[in-house]
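Hi Y.,

Following your request, here is the sequence exactly as I used it, all 237 residues.
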Amino acid sequence: MQAMIFAAGLGTRFKPWTDHHPKALAIINGKSLLQRNIEYLQQYEIRDVVVNVHHFPGQVIDAIEKNKGWGSRITISDETDALLETGGGLKKAGSLFGNGPIVLINVDILTDLDLGAMFSYHRQERPLATIAVTNRATSRYFLFDKENNLCGWRNVETGKERTSREVPAATAKAFSGIHIIEPRMLSMISEEGKFSIVDVYLELSATNPVKGFDHSGSKFIDVGKPEAVKMAETMFP
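Below is the corresponding structure, written out as tokens. Let me know if you'd prefer a different format.
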């Protein structure tokens, strides 16, 4: 398999660190978030990794070069001119991937999710994409039908809801920022410029299977704010 780590974001929730550094290089117990995710992927023999950059891109590239990719083969997708979000960033990086499934992960996610089990599920079900989810409380949820197919999205704070297919009853799950896609999905993305991968999944799930993979028993933390660092250091020594 191959992977892409989304590391281009501005990290506005992570100020003041991100006033002078990219969030990807925030340190958790002596290792940056980027290094930890590269090493996480290595546990599953994934060593071909695309990393997108935008905010202080030179710092990210220097860290990768100085550490020789921490043992992985890193390719940079340069978004210096324009931040494209997850969907646009994936589309821009499309030509950098080879054949076979692609693991996508946000750089500020730390987890011990069994990626091997998730890939086995993906290979068995053969969907266009498999999305890692949990039962945790959050403000935004993906919605799934009884066969675990994506059918919508809901923001519980604003009340906004989008559906890709009408179903009698939908189950809400929190997205973990980790997904596996089939390479054919890249040519199916119709959006241009800056857009979220959520928009892509909602559009494509109307006519294609997009599955949820529940890993609620795993360790998981979104290191989105500085106050999450201490908890992350407790969970991931």
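The chain has a mean pLDDT of 97.

Thanks again,
Q.
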